[in-house]
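TASK: fixed-backbone design
INPUT:
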């Protein structure tokens, strides 16, 4: 299976380890872009690493994803992958020109890379806040409310059908009916392919992605698998964003391909 490009797992030997106490600088909450907006999967908590690049601390998105917040060689803060971070490269998905010593002191306006327009777009809603007990409490309260809403809607909808990939097309064997499970992962209920197969539809909060993958990835909430979509939908039938499927999960040069016909609908709703 292929890890999702914006949330690849780092090899253990390369993953920065936290040894400094949090109070020295503190973890950072990046907030702003909503589902469907450019770089919405860059939001979330970034944990302080025992690492500095270009004289500033480095932060890694919670869950050891391959997303880092760091200070580049061109005096800009960036959110990019581990390779860019280690080299201090001025490249990534979010950027802001600022001499701030830590992200929570940034007052300048951020910009995000828009893959459709192929250019940088101003993102005035992006903010970097230092995490404290009040913010953690706020996030926990939001999650409880959201999970309750997701559960209510999921129970109303029941089982779902994933369709769109015809026989012979990529990941066609992931299609079919998925039965609602009494299990929550990352604030959303889980679905299992009919017949007890090791195939699950679940929500990976790292990157805000609904994924179709095996039980191991589901239990860990990992953003990996054969199909995924970036969406904050509380239940999969509410997803309106474009799904992608992996083109070859056995090859080293596997890549993601859009699947515009793939969708999820309630079992009891006709096509």
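OUTPUT:
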């Amino acid at each position: 299976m292929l890890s999702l490009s914006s949330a690849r797992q780092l090899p253990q030997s390369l993953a920065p380890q936290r040894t400094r106490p949090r109070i020295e600088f503190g973890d950072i909450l990046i907030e702003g872009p909503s589902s469907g907006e450019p770089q919405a999967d860059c939001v979330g908590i970034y944990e302080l690493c025992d690492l500095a690049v270009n004289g500033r601390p480095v932060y890694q998105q919670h869950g050891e994803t391959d997303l880092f917040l760091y200070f580049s060689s061109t005096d800009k803060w960036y959110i990019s992958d581990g390779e860019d971070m280690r080299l201090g490269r001025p490249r990534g998905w979010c950027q802001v020109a600022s001499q701030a010593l830590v992200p929570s002191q940034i007052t300048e306006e951020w910009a995000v890379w828009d893959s459709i327009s192929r250019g940088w777009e101003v993102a005035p809603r992006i903010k970097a806040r230092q995490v404290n007990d009040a913010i953690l409490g706020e996030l926990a309260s939001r999650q409880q409310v959201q999970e309750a809403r997701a559960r209510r809607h999921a129970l109303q909808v029941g089982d779902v059908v994933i369709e769109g990939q015809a026989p012979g097309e990529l990941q066609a064997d992931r299609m079919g009916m998925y039965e609602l499970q009494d299990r929550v992962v990352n604030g959303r209920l889980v679905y299992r392919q009919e017949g007890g197969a090791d195939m699950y539809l679940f929500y990976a909060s790292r990157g805000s992605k609904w994924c179709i993958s095996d039980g191991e990835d589901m239990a860990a909430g990992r953003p990996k698998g054969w199909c995924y979509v970036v969406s904050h939908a509380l239940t999969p039938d509410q997803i309106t964003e474009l799904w992608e499927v992996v083109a070859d999960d056995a090859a080293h040069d596997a890549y993601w391909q859009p699947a515009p016909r793939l969708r999820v609908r309630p079992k009891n709703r006709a096509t």
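COMMENT: The chain is about 15% helix and 35% strand.
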